[in-house]
Amino acid sequence: MDTMVQIRQTGGLKKLLSFAENSTIPDIQKNAAKAIAKAAYDPENRKLFHEQEVEKCLVALLGSENDGTKIAASQAISAMCENSDSKDFFNNQGIPQLIQLLKSDSEEVREAAALALANLTTCNSANANAAAEADGIDPLINVLSSKRDGAIANAATVLTNMAMQEPLRLNIRNHDIMHAIISPLRSANTVVQGKAALAVAATACDVEARTELRNSGGLEPLVELLRSNNGEVRRHASWAVMVCAGDEPTASELCRLGALDILEVVSLSGSRRNKFSELAYNKLLNNNLPLKYSRTGYLSSSNIINDGFYDYGQIHPGIKLLPLKELCLQEPSDRRAVLLINSKSDVSPPSSMEDKSDVGYGRSISSSSSLRRSSKEKTKKNSYHFSAGFGSPIEDKSEPASGRNTVVSKSATKEKGWRKGREKKEEEKVKEEEEVIAVPKFVGEGSSDKEWCPPSDPDFSMYVYEVTKSILPIINIKEQIEVLAKYVAEKMGGKIIKEKIPDFNWELHISELKFQLKSNVIPIGHVKKGIFYHRALLFKALADRIGIGCSLVRGEYGRAWNEVMLQNESRKGVIGGLPTFEVYVVDLMFHPGGLMKLRSREADLYRLL
Fold it and tell me: Which residues pair with 452 in a beta bridge?
């Protein structure tokens, strides 16, 4: 440092610049550029160099015919980037020349140019744009296949910096980044691994990009990086997995490849765990709700149950959850029935349904003016209270049969909404259809287009229709919950006296359904005698359809319950301060519609044996 001060004070730095600019001997230019690069690591030197307009000199040296000079000039630019004014200078002059150097035949030149570009574009969107405008995306992606690890890592960094801006990210994706990044992900160099994972996190922000990565086989090496002993690699890989878990197909594939199992092990380790690994673990579960509920026994109000959800029961770490298709194709056994949610039915709700004055749970559609309010207003109100996502109230329930087996259960024909106006001959036809077994099959058997479909559930489809028409418009959220609870209890066998649960014979009913359907998978609408866990699942599935925020919690010995959050009645009307909310357990068994404050004695008696 003392020597540098002396050189600076005696004008040595100015002489150095003169050598670099004016010498015609390549070695002198190269060594002068090297000296500038080393000196530029000192803030005072950088300031002095900037005052002497060293940037112009370095840009000129990038055009040298000598590779060594180009490398030294690129390294000097990298060092000068610590000065923000110098960084801005290279926006118009320097970046295009560096992009050209990425096309050099020399691997060392390409590495040095990529390093300079990495430093220039870090935390500088203008320089990232300049690199894109200089047609730098293709050369950068080509460098990802370089033989030098440093070049690959630097190019990945530049692409990551550019991808922070959405227009550039889309442009990068269109240049096949997802295929090019796979080789760096498989690198043995931890620096390259980390930078490549970071590039995936920056570029896989939309479904199309994730699909390309998945189809290109990029998820497998990414998952393997989660096992890395290098902390930075694990963090970046976890971040990338969290981003890739943004859509269900990719999340499912990540789980199939073992990402969830690895992250679970990482989360149990005090030294290997990091915040990104925890976020990635939760994101994977939130995009695979059947697995989340089986692993954790809990779904929050923001975990919306959609068609295709199934409750397999509790599974322990290390046990894989079989996909629904495989479970449906298994023969029935003595293990716990798998409950399926599927409102996509081949049977359309009757068009006259909305004119009925009674849907079987004591609520007149036409008699209450509040029910005539629009669904849109009600959904908006519930969103304010719970900030919960909403499932579509009801979609088109009539899909082309396309070879699907259709089951209409006997109990469905007994529903008032279905029976009214039907002739005896139609009822006999429905009874005949009951014999048709609802085992899943391929659509269009015998044709080349085979698409597997889960068992249909016309009864649950009707439930969705009924609650959407009659419960969704209710203005008061507490009343909504109470009416829905009574509705669910009625569909599952009605109110039960606690002491008479052993006489309820729900196990026999479930066994008969398994035999009838020839499967362990039972659509929830088929269950007419259900206890805690059947009713809690049906309540959650229907509540999600109409925007009632509620959670689903699994207990022990067949217990499960729903928790809802309601505003504290005692605080209503109080001026000032934020509204306070309390959590209640919904009674679906003994006093359907009853709300028990969480951790109260009655709530504990309901939740626990």
Answer: 442
Beta bridge partners of 597: 584
What's the distance, CA 86 to chain centroid? 41
What is the C-alpha R_g of the chain? 33
d(CA 442, CA 303): 30
Largest CA distance in the chain: 111
One-letter amino acid identity for 282?
A: N
Q: With contact defined as beta carbons under 8 Å apart, do 413 and 301 qualify?
A: no
Instruction: Please state the domain extents for the chain.
Output: 325-607
| Tokens standing for residue 446 | 């015998």
* CB contact at 8 A, 583 and 565: yes
Mean pLDDT by 10 residues, the chain (609 residues): 74 76 82 86 83 86 90 92 87 90 94 95 93 94 94 96 93 92 95 96 93 94 94 94 90 89 83 86 89 92 94 84 91 93 71 43 35 39 37 37 37 40 44 43 42 90 96 95 97 92 92 94 96 97 96 94 87 64 95 94 91
Cα–Cα distance between 160 and 195 in angstroms, integer?
8
| Sequence-ordered list of residues with C-beta below 8 angstroms from that of 499, at least 6 positions apart, any chain | none
Residue carrying structure tokens 């529903």: 415
Q: Alpha-carbon distance 589 to 593, whole Å?
A: 9
3-class SS at 584?
A: strand
Tokens 């000039």, located at residue? 73
Q: Which two tokens stand for residue 385?
A: 């209270």
- pTM given for the model: 0.70
Query: 284 and 260 in contact (C-beta within 8 Å)?
Result: yes
**Exposed, middle or buried: residue 210 (CB in 10 Å: 0-12, 13-18, 19+)?**
buried
